[in-house]
Amino acid sequence: MTLDHKKNVFIELGKFLSQFSDKEIQKKEGVLFNDLYFDSFIELIELSQSHNGWFTKENVLFSLESWSKALTKENLDLWLSSYDFSIVSSKNIGLILAGNIPLVGFHDFVSVLISGHKAVIKTSSNDQKLLPFLANYIISVEPEFENYINFTEGKLEGFDAVIATGNDNTARYFEFYFKNTPSIIRKNRNSVAVLTGQETKEQMIALGEDIFRYFGLGCRNVSKLFVPKGYNFDAFFGGIFSYQDVIKYEKYANNYDYNKAVFLMSNFQLLDNEFLTIKEDSSYASPISSVFYEYYDDLEDIKAKLELEKDKIQCVVSNSKIKGELPFGQTQKPNLWDYADNVDTLSFLINL
What we know:
Elements: H1 3-17, H2 34-51, H3 57-70, H4 73-80, E1 92-96, H5 106-114, E2 118-122, H6 130-141, E3 149-151, E4 161-165, H7 168-177, E5 183-186, E6 190-194, H8 201-212, E7 222-228, H9 234-240, H10 250-265, E8 270-272, E9 277-280, E10 290-296, H11 299-308, E11 313-318, H12 345-350
Parallel strand pairs: 1-2, 1-4, 2-3, 4-5, 6-7, 6-11, 7-10, 9-10
Antiparallel strand pairs: 8-9
Helix pairs in contact: 1-3, 1-6, 8-9
């Protein structure tokens, strides 16, 4: 398959996914294999929360809509234009996927196939349905891809390189197990927001999206705030108030009750609005239903700190001219060229 042919397959996938959003689900004319896949995909979406209690219909649809916007001809052309795929010698790439948010490993999957390699995939037990369904759709569009996609439930074998995603504990195991294999091993990362107190109400509302989308389970979710000394949190709480319905989800509510109780029993000082606690803490990784914060005296000091500790950070949300910062509300809308951990996956795959 040529690169253009592979791109066209993913463009067709993007068109299929464009029928599904959290605003509406609408069957469109001209989408390939709709009669075969449209209704069954709706059924899978409806059942997603029974497979994983965190995969609400709203969040699954948000993920699908994000991918539909990414998989356009314009985005694929822009993403792939700077790479030379002529040097690729096809190899078997083991993918060990996480399952914290819907389709969290989909970018690695696309990268392997678009670069001309074969994917040997071990899905997370928390996300075993969505990717195989989309893989079947891709194979229907281009049957040759059947030779490039293999899902395995047992031990991962027969690979020439590995991309593995987990936490810091599993990463140590991966690094030992794959020490003699070319690999990308992803560890825990967290995202932060740097506030000045000059943010607009709209920016604070958008920050709520960065915090609460996927219930805060992703590495691109903001889990830590840096705020100036004397910062008044009223504007922050006012902005996130529109996300109060998050507490209606049982799994989130259970985490809120548990983590709040642990904090209070430990005599920690908290700010609380009945669906989110915020706690002064130097750590980046806060538990579900909580966000940590840290005061600063000088914005330049925070810029230096974030640069020094960049290996712990996925995204920085700010309006303060910080290197690589994202606008408020955009952390869960990455472009194809926004690589996890800032590791260029395509360069790794091309140069194997």
